[in-house]
Amino acid sequence: MKIICFGKLKQEFKILEQEYLKKLKSLDKIEIIELKECSGNSKEEILKKEENLVKDKLDNYIVLTEEGKNIDSREFSKLIGNKLTFVIGSSFGISENIKKNAFMKLSLSKMTFSHQLARVLLLEQIYRAHCIKKNLPYQKD
């Protein structure tokens, strides 16, 4: 499984990321690809530059976007096991071209989160999904 994201994590998020990667080590191989956040004169220019950076790395992918589908953790767990790439946009979001060619558009919540927090939330949900699939005592319902 791959997670493609823009920008480096701040230290406080990096600690949480490392915690979930450690928990996931025996459950899944997670590759995190950090791409440099682009700069430009407009949001459209920045998104186009970021699209050019990411487009050749995409195959069967899911974009995290606030207008994506809301699913629960059990439904999310059904996605795990497939060879997937998750794409988390920069603070400017994700280009429409990347969104429209995605296998799925997924929302972590109806609320908006920073791209840094979304990365940690995604890792937590991947861990939770593996626990659900393997009947490990993490998901309480």
Task: Report on the architecture of this protein.
The protein contains five helices and five strands; from the N terminus they run E-H-E-H-E-H-E-H-E-H. The chain has 141 residues and is α/β, with parallel strands linked by helices. Helix 1 packs parallel to helix 5 (115-133). The longest helix is centred in the C-terminal third of the chain and has 19 residues, at 115-133. It starts with a strand and ends in an 8-residue tail after the last helix.
Write down the secondary-structure element order.
EHEHEHEHEH
Alpha-carbon distance between the two ends? 26 Å
Please identify the structural class as seen in this structure. Answer: alpha/beta
Helix tally equals 5
The assigned CATH architecture is 3-Layer(aba) Sandwich
Strand order in the sheet with the most strands: 2-1-4-3-5
Average pLDDT reading: 92
Indicate the overall shape. Answer: globular
- What is the CATH first-level class name? Alpha Beta
- Which fold name corresponds to the CATH topology? Alpha/beta knot
C-alpha-based Rg, rounded: 15 Å
What fraction, in percent, of the residue positions are helical?
25-40%
CATH superfamily: SPOUT methyltransferase, trefoil knot domain
**Largest sheet report:** 5 strands, parallel
| Total individual domains | 1
Low-confidence stretches: none
Strand content: 15-25%
